[in-house]
């Protein structure tokens, strides 16, 4: 593609076209998450999906902006609100949907469900549904990579509620102490279930908190995918190049209830509406239109295309196989069936 | 009605935020429901026009019911998109069916009237299994454990004893059956009983010599006035004397079963009768202690006759609690008998012969009877045996009291 | 003549030798835990290993049980073979989230994609007047969890031979070392060979009663069995060795033979391994039992400090003897 003989103008235009391509890709990824989550909500009300269902609407820019910077050999450890992370990491929407349906074709074979998506192929170490439980694991994955002298890093997503837990502090300390390449991404959506952030933390400046472990840290507007992309790029590079941890706070908001059955007494509808004005997808689409990188028709095209992907994923899940009950005990242990 | 959690069954519609004719689009909030967790918005997943509000405000609506109808923008298949609308839910209907079923009273179980034993036998599971295998009735087994709990060893011991008893009885039956006909089977029966005795019973032997002058003189005196057929014979005297002694020494009268001595109340003196065709039978004079000498005599005569004709009753053959054997005039001097199991003693009388005896400090020739008591050492010991012989002598020296 | 056959070794040395050998054999193996390096291990088990293997492979951790245990689990899932040492089972409660919510379920929850080949060693048991917070035998608890394997070496041979197969096992393995056994010395002729980590072993054959036990209970039970033998009662002593998955076969074969079972466990009865074994025997061997299953277990109290009280709270050989003497049908 790129040759030495390129003119500066051509270089510029190719950079511009690359930029356009990337931005539209970011938008596309966010819309994929949004539409998948909306469908999941609908399917839940129809009892197609059961268990707990934690949706990511509103927070799409974080997963998309961060994961865009990761290499194939890097690992991701996420939480129970991880559909979006799995999707943009490369787990197919079909396998995610099938997992939520509890089907054998799901990315965890129907044993995990919405909260426990796993995919070894993409080093997606899954969703843990115990708050902060994934942080020690991510630290350990990074420890392994360091011992194995790999270039890889571990990227760990968690909500601000995890910051209240001891495992957060233990992991931050260990990662900093042992100089492990972990990127800690705190998705601060202001509520740990119903508990407002400012009522849970004595120090609400999480960057300060992270720095107390002598860890490099920064905070970014999690509703702005480009801002996240750029900040995460620095963070990933730092962790990889210096073999050091990095703490990145992404300030964001979830539109939906914590899980499904949640009357949301803890916040006002007005507050939700206010945040929706900062929606990462609509604001970014507007921005691209303004920059003439996107037309309304193109946006519609993306939406239609994604709707098709969602429909296909639902169909895939609907047609999925129920695992035979005889296999109930499979995977309790690696070698035996009991 | 949307399902917002697996524990949500129904909810009350608080208010509609739309009315028929309103245009709605995906994501709009069209109403509010009150759930057990509080107020929650109802969201729609379709774009279209509300054509009908099915549910009324204030109504409690089960999950999955149609609440409103929205006409989709597209014509055709999707025109009548419904809100959260799985129409048929077999699972939901099931509880109702179950209730119907439950309404019919269940049939009275057959077992209801069955009698339940008041005292349940305490036995270990293994003991029960073994009892079943060995066909042992646990209610007959004595347990060795705490509170009489029956363990495996108790059942096995019982079964062993039972098997031995049964074999013995079978052999006895056979003996009875064959007594008139032939000797082969009887020989076998005797062999079995004697082998068992030899195998199981630790015998001890005590012997003494009894001066028979007084009793024989007394007999002669009695017989002077009797017809030949009514004469009293020494064995009758001996049987009656033995029976009297046993009332005072019950330890020798009874059976050794289940590893224990079981004293019998009735004193049934079995006596060996040699048959002309060979072999012997041992009928018993039942309750000999309660019979007079005269009654003993007639029973004896009757029994010998019937024995030789093969007409003994089974009770007579199986009831002896002790055995007496007397080889009579032509017999040996002494008899070291073999106890007939499960009895615990056998009294052997040798022939009455003239032997030198010390009487009142001088040696004289007197009719003398040699008595040998064979005792089961599990059931009694030599002390008891000695007393038996001593008392037997006393009885015989006072025949008039018999 | 055979030098190996004459070798004597303490339990502590056996564990250390097992770790040294594993680290020599496999670069992926490393030891991490509180005071395993400079201090030499809280029970002196890893003494000298820091000098031999260096800081990267004998890792002193801060007092962050959940953090470093989770770290070991993550490292295992990412290809390493960590040996995580938790000082005692009591502190493992701080890491229970990682052990139970992650290690035990990752393989299942991920539909067989991510296994966790971690080995977590910890000291267990009471008897040293350490009072309520340092004297528990909670291996029972961990044995409740599907997905974990629970080993309880009671002999020098097992202490030496169980570690390598545990490291080779693709699933999380917890090894419980009774702290009163570290000084226990015995002849060792294993020559570094591994032992299986799936079966129970009959340590003493007998015909009258089966004593089912593990760990320190094995030694108390063997003592009791010798005494009983003098009275004509022959006890068969079964060393469970593995509390999960339990080796039903060996246990059942023994009880089928003796028709009587006593379970000896320093742990509590309620909901413990003794309850589990008793239930399994009753479920499967009811008609083989000649008397009820008996249990000689730790008294259901927090461990007291005073020596006489603590001793009274733990199963003792005399208690085992008396329990067996009273068992129905035992004589004959």
Short summary:
Chain C: This is Pyruvate dehydrogenase E1 component beta subunit. The complex is a heterotrimer of chains A (about 350), B (about 400) and C (about 325). Chain A has helices spanning about 10-45, 60-65, 85-90, 95-100, 135-145, 165-175, 195-200, 205-210, 225-240, 270-275, 280-290, 295-320, and strands at about 75-80, 125-130, 155-160, 180-190, 190, 195, 215-220, 245-250.
Task: Write structural notes for this entry.
Chain A: Its EC number is 1.2.4.1. Chain A: Its cofactor is thiamine diphosphate. Chain A: Residues 1-24 are annotated as: Disordered. Chain A: One of its GO terms (biological process) is pyruvate decarboxylation to acetyl-CoA. Chain A: Residues 29-321 form the Dehydrogenase E1 component domain. Chain C: Keywords: Oxidoreductase, Pyruvate, Thiamine pyrophosphate. The complex is a heterotrimer of chains A (338), B (402) and C (332). With 338 residues, chain A is of the alpha/beta class. Chain A has a single domain, classed as Rossmann fold, CATH 3.40.50. Chain A is 46% helix and 12% strand. Chain A has helices spanning 8-45, 60-67, 83-89, 93-100, 134-147, 166-177, 197-200, 206-211, 225-242, 269-276, 280-290, 296-318, and strands spanning 75-79, 124-128, 154-159, 182-188, 191-192, 195-196, 216-221, 246-251. In chain A, helix 1 packs antiparallel against helix 3, helix 1 crosses helix 12 and helix 2 (60-67) packs parallel to helix 3. The model of chain A has no long low-confidence stretch (mean pLDDT 94). Chain B is α+β, with helices and mostly antiparallel strands and 402 residues long. Chain B has nine helices and 19 strands. Chain B has helices at 90-103, 125-134, 152-181, 184-200, 213-224, 234-248, 293-309, 314-318, 382-397; strands at residues 10-16, 23-24, 29-35, 38-43, 48-53, 60-62, 68-72, 80-82, 203-211, 254-257, 260-263, 269-271, 273-274, 280-281, 284-285, 322-326, 345-349, 353-359, 362-376. In chain B, a hairpin with a 7-residue loop joins strand 7 (68-72) and strand 8 (80-82). The longest helix of chain B is centred in the middle third of the chain and has 30 residues, at 152-181. Chain C is an alpha/beta fold. Chain C folds into two domains: 8-187, Thiamin diphosphate (ThDP)-binding fold, Pyr/PP domains (Rossmann fold); 201-325, Rossmann fold (3-Layer(aba) Sandwich), CATH 3.40.50. Chain C has a seven-stranded mixed sheet with strand order 3-2-4-5-7-6-12, with helices on both faces. In chain C, strand 2, helix 3 and strand 3 form a beta-alpha-beta unit. In chain C, helix 4 (65-77) packs parallel to helix 6, helix 11 packs across helix 15 and helix 12 (248-258) packs across helix 13 (273-285). The longest helix of chain C has 15 residues, at 11-25. The model of chain C has no long low-confidence stretch (mean pLDDT 95). At the B-C interface, helix 2 and helix 3 of B face loops of C.
């Amino acid at each position: 593609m790129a040759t030495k003989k390129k003119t500066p103008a051509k270089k510029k235009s190719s950079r511009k076209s690359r930029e356009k391509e990337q931005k539209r890709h970011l938008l596309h990824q966010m819309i994929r998450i949004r539409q998948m989550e909306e469908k999941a909500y609908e399917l839940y009300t129809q009892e197609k999906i059961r268990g707990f269902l934690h949706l990511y609407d509103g927070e799409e820019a974080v997963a998309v902006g961060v994961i865009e910077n990761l290499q194939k050999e890097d690992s991701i450890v996420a939480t129970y609100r991880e559909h979006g992370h799995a999707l943009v990491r490369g787990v197919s929407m079909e396998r995610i949907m099938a997992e939520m349906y509890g089907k054998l074709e799901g990315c965890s074979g129907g044993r995990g469900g919405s909260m426990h998506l796993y995919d070894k192929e993409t080093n997606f170490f899954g969703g843990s549904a115990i708050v902060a439980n994934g942080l020690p694991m991510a630290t350990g994955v990074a420890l392994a990579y360091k011992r194995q002298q790999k270039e890889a890093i571990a990227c760990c997503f968690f909500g601000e509620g995890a910051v209240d837990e001891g495992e957060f502090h233990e992991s931050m300390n260990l990662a900093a102490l042992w100089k492990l390449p972990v990127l800690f991404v705190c998705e601060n959506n202001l509520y740990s279930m119903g508990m407002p952030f400012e009522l849970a933390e004595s120090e609400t400046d999480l960057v300060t908190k992270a720095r107390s472990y002598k860890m490099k840290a920064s905070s970014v507007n999690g509703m702005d995918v480009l801002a996240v992309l750029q900040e995460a790029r620095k963070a990933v590079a730092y962790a990889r190049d210096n073999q050091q941890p990095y703490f990145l706070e992404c300030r964001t908001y979830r539109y939906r209830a914590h899980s499904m059955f949640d009357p949301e007494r803890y916040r006002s509808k007005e507050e939700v509406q206010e945040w929706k004005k900062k929606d990462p997808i609509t604001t970014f689409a507007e921005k691209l239109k303004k920059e003439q990188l996107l037309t309304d028709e193109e946006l519609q095209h993306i939406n239609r295309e994604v709707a098709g992907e969602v429909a296909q994923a639902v169909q895939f899940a609907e047609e999925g196989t129920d695992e035979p009950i005889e296999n109930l005990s499979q995977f309790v242990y690696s070698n035996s069936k009991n | 009605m949307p399902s917002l959690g697996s524990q949500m069954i129904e909810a009350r519609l608080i208010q509609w935020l739309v009315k028929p004719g309103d245009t709605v689009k995906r994501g709009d909030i069209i109403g509010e429901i009150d759930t057990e967790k509080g107020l929650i918005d109802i969201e729609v997943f379709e774009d279209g026009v509300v054509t009908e509000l099915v549910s009324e405000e204030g109504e409690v609506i089960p999950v999955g019911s149609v609440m409103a109808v929205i006409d989709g923008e597209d014509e055709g298949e999707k025109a009548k998109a419904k809100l959260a609308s799985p129409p048929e839910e077999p699972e939901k209907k099931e509880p109702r069916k179950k209730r119907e079923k439950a309404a019919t009273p269940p049939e009275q179980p057959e077992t209801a009237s069955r009698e339940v034993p008041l005292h349940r036998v305490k036995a270990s599971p293994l003991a029960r299994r073994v009892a079943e295998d060995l066909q042992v009735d646990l209610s007959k087994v004595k347990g060795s454990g705490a509170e009489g709990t029956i363990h495996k060893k108790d059942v096995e011991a019982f079964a062993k004893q039972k098997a031995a008893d049964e074999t013995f009885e079978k052999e006895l039956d056979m003996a009875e059956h064959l007594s008139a006909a032939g000797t082969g089977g009887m020989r076998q029966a005797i062999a079995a009983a004697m082998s068992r005795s030899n195998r199981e019973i630790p015998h001890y032997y005590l012997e003494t010599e009894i001066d028979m002058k007084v009793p024989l003189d007394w007999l002669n005196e009695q017989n002077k006035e009797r017809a030949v057929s009514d004469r009293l014979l020494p064995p009758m005297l001996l049987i009656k004397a033995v029976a009297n002694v046993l009332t005072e020494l019950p330890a020798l009268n009874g059976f050794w079963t289940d590893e224990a001595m079981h004293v019998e109340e009735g004193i049934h003196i079995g006596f060996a009768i040699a048959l002309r065709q060979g072999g012997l039978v041992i009928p018993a004079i039942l309750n000999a202690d309660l019979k007079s000498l005269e009654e003993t005599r007639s029973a004896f005569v009757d029994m010998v006759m019937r024995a030789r004709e093969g007409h003994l009753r089974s009770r007579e053959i199986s009831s002896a609690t002790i055995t007496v054997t007397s080889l009579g005039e032509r017999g040996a001097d002494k008899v070291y008998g073999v106890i007939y199991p499960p009895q615990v003693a056998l009294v052997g009388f040798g022939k009455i012969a003239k032997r030198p005896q010390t009487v009142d400090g001088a040696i004289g020739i007197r009719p003398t009877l040699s008595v040998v008591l064979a005792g089961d050492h599990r059931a009694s010991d030599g002390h008891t045996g000695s007393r038996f012989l001593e008392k037997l002598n006393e009885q015989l020296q006072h025949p008039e009291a018999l | 003549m055979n030098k190996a056959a004459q070798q004597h070794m303490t339990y502590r040395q056996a564990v250390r030798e097992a770790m040294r050998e594993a680290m020599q054999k496999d670069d992926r193996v490393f030891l991490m835990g509180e005071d395993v390096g400079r201090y030499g291990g809280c029970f002196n088990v890893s003494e000298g290993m820091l000098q031999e293997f260096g800081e990267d492979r004998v890792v002193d951790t801060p007092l962050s049980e959940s953090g470093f245990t989770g770290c070991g689990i993550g490292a295992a899932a990412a290809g390493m073979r960590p040996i995580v040492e938790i000082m005692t089972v009591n502190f493992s409660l701080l890491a229970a989230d990682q052990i139970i919510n992650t290690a035990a379920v990752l393989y299942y929850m991920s539909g067989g994609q991510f296994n966790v080949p971690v080995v977590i060693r910890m000291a267990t048991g009471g008897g040293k007047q350490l009072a309520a917070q340092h004297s528990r035998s909670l291996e029972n608890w961990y044995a409740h969890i599907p997905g974990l394997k629970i080993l309880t070496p009671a002999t020098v041979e097992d202490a030496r031979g169980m570690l390598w197969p545990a490291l080779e096992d693709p699933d999380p393995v917890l090894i419980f070392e009774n702290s009163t056994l570290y000084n226990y010395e015995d002849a060792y002729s294993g020559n570094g060979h591994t032992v299986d980590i799936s079966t129970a072993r009959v340590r003493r054959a007998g015909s009258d009663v089966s004593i089912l036990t593990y760990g320190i209970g094995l030694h108390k039970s063997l003592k009791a069995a010798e005494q009983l033998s003098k009275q004509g009662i022959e006890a068969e002593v079964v060393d469970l060795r593995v509390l999960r998955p339990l080796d039903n076969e060996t246990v059942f074969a023994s009880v089928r033979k003796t028709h009587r079972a006593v379970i000896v466990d320093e742990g509590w009865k309620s909901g413990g391994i003794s309850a589990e074994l008793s239930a399994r025997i009753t479920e499967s061997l009811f008609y083989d039992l000649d008397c009820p299953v008996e249990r000689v277990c730790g008294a259901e109290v927090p461990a007291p400090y005073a020596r006489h009280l603590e001793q009274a709270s733990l199963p003792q050989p005399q208690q085992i003897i008396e329990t067996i003497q009273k068992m129905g049908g035992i004589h004959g």
